[in-house]
Specification:
The complex is a heterodimer of chains A (128) and B (226). Chain A is α+β, with helices and mostly antiparallel strands and 128 residues long. Chain A is built from 2 helices and 6 strands, in the order H-E-H-E-E-E-E-E. In chain A, helix 1 packs across helix 2. Chain B contains 8 helices and 8 strands, in the order E-H-E-H-E-H-E-H-E-E-H-H-E-H-E-H. Classes of the chains: A alpha+beta (128), B alpha/beta (226).
Chain lengths: 128, 226
């Protein structure tokens, strides 16, 4: 797979977000990986660990990964099997064996915690 | 760092909710608009190495040209070989050598499309022959109108159940090299059932470029007539 280049994409986005907010460091990084995205979580975090060592802004960051499971809709009766980690073998309602998956196939940055640079203007916060 | 000394450093929590595939997706849409503006249709062929993508393309071009003008974008890690094979049929071909990358992305295809349309050449149908790989190309939308997955008989009928991610967004599933069915334990039923388990609407065709069996079905699945 191409987890390393996806991790590079994450690092690029994090640096952009940090610049946009004039941050001094990226702290907590929350990422969602779809169970059907084909992305191997371990390889993705391993790639990010390597990359962050070379980026002072990311050096102290912590990557948190949550798995986004797809919902499967039975092609026969429409029953929803929510957040399934496997492709269902059979519909529990009608024994149907064909399903329409939705979601669970993306790689998203959900939330980032940043350290902001110290104010240099000397406490003029309220005057924007 | 300043929770102890209180020197004024602050933290901020930023909601992002942004896909790392969003840039690729946006450029994919641009590829689609470009192709549509030229009156053409874009087909993305995905399979493992050796499933017969190039051979099926050669046979397809022979059936459709000159009535239909065809262009091909060839993705390979190395060599111009496939593009040369395609050019020998009379179709236009652009080779992308990725130099190691396991898939094509929308940026690479965008550049290749511009090369393909150089000199205002008219094309009805454009095939993208992706890098031989049944996993990675599935994650990258290239702007295609039709996504086709090929599995050849020697690979085995368990491929759809082993690679659900690849099959879930496909429009056409072509089982290739069906002339070899007598020599392998390939179950068409199993392959079809497992592909439909994750993609009930997928169109399944059985084809052999060598014996020409099923070529009409394949061409029909592409939305073309012989």
């Amino acid at each position: 797979m191409h987890e390393f280049s996806l991790a590079e994409g994450l690092a690029r986005e994090l640096l952009r977000i940090a610049r946009e907010h004039k941050a001094s460091a990226v702290r907590e990084v929350y990422v969602s990986i779809g169970a059907l995205s084909g992305i191997v979580r371990e390889s993705f975090s391993f790639g990010f660990e390597i990359i962050k060592e070379h980026e002072p802004m990311l050096k102290e960051s912590q990557l948190h990964i949550e798995v986004d499971y797809p919902t499967y809709r039975c092609g026969q009766c429409g029953y929803l099997i929510e957040r399934s980690s496997v492709v269902p073998a059979q519909c529990p309602m009608c024994n149907g064996v064909e399903f329409y998956p939705s979601g669970g196939d993306d790689l998203k940055i959900m939330r980032v915690e940043l350290d902001l640079e110290e104010e240099t203007s000397g406490g003029g916060d309220e005057h924007v | 760092m300043c929770d102890t000394c209180g020197c004024g450093e602050r933290q901020v929590d930023v909601e992002v909710k942004e896909s790392l595939f969003s840039k690729n997706r946006a450029l994919g849409e641009e590829n689609r608009r470009l192709v549509e503006a030229k009156g053409a249709k874009l087909v993305n062929l995905i399979s493992a190495p050796g499933s017969g993508k190039t051979t099926l393309l050669e046979a397809t071009i022979t059936h459709l040209m000159p009535k239909v003008s065809i262009g091909v974008i060839e993705g390979d890690i190395e060599t111009e070989r496939d593009a040369q094979r395609i050019r020998a049929t009379g179709a236009r071909a652009v080779q992308i050598t990725t130099g190691g990358a396991c898939h094509l992305d929308a940026v690479l295809v965008h550049k290749a499309l511009h090369t393909l349309f150089e000199g205002d050449s008219h094309l009805d149908l454009i095939f993208i022959e992706n890098v031989g790989n049944l996993v990675c190309p599935a994650s990258f939308y290239l702007g295609e109108h039709l996504r086709c997955i090929l599995v050849s008989v020697p690979e085995g009928s368990d491929k759809p159940s082993k690679y659900p991610t690849t099959f879930k967004d496909a429009d056409v599933f072509a089982i290739t090299k069906i002339d070899l069915l007598p020599y392998f334990d390939f179950s068409i039923d199993e392959a079809a059932r497992e592909a439909r388990r994750i993609n009930p609407g997928i169109q399944i065709v059985e084809v052999s470029a060598k014996t020409q069996e099923g070529m009409a079905d394949w061409i029909h699945a592409l939305g073309m007539k012989i």
